[in-house]
Write the structure tokens for this entry.
Amino acid sequence: MKTTTFLLLFAGLLLFQACGSDSNTSIASLEAKVEENPTPEDADALIAMYNEYIANNPEDAELNAKYLYRAAGLLFRLNRFNEASNVLKEAVKNHYSSSQTANNIYFMGTIQEEKLNNTELATSIYQCLQQAFPQFENAAAVAQKLQGNIPPITARIDTLAKGIFDLSSGRVNRRTANNFVESCDLYSIILPNDPQSPALLHKGGEAARATRAFKTALDIYGRIYDRYPDFEKAPQALFLKAFTLDNDLQRYDEARELYEIFLAKYPNDDFADDTEFLLKNLGKTDEEIIQSFEKVDQ
């Protein structure tokens, strides 16, 4: 496993050299300095430069994915493994068309396996990678990691779902819940055009909200609505995003905007009546709502 990590970092060094002719000379200059001595301050400054370039050039998927790979490599070398994994996930999600995508997925799986000791999530990543990029240059290594009687990923996800709540105590198994949500999320990110992706993503959103991971739930509901507009539960995803903003986070202005979009777009949906009621009573306490009913009765 150490050999795999070394090869990944060596690949990162090659990327630094290969992209040394980038037009952004400030980035190239700081890269050279960081490669020689990667202090946390310089690493953060370089990552900030990468992010600035990405923000200003959102359509440059090829270079953006490489910059994020480099950022993840810097974070890895500084032992900031969770951050590195999250950066790689962002690269795959937002710059999927890049030739770097399979490498980003593989690096993410390696971090989960070797540094975060999350073999469950690493297995999900490797299984998705194998399915999405069967001709990947490290396909043999991925296949070796998946040797044995490992169930298909959808079967594993179903098993994770059953373990989210401890029936004897009623408590949430946080690690299992996170692995379930992340496996659903990563399935849709790594296999965005797979027919099962929107349904799995929706299940992940439901679990995220049920376990009070509201930020994750909002991201998932938003991506379902934006990425899979023809999915039968896309309207429900929009409603649930609005409801989460309203009921769970009390971000009423944002909720109002989404409720109004929902009613304009889906006036005959099963949730339309609920949406009208929630919009009318936005921000009111239960007591205030009851009082409004009493006034109507009078």
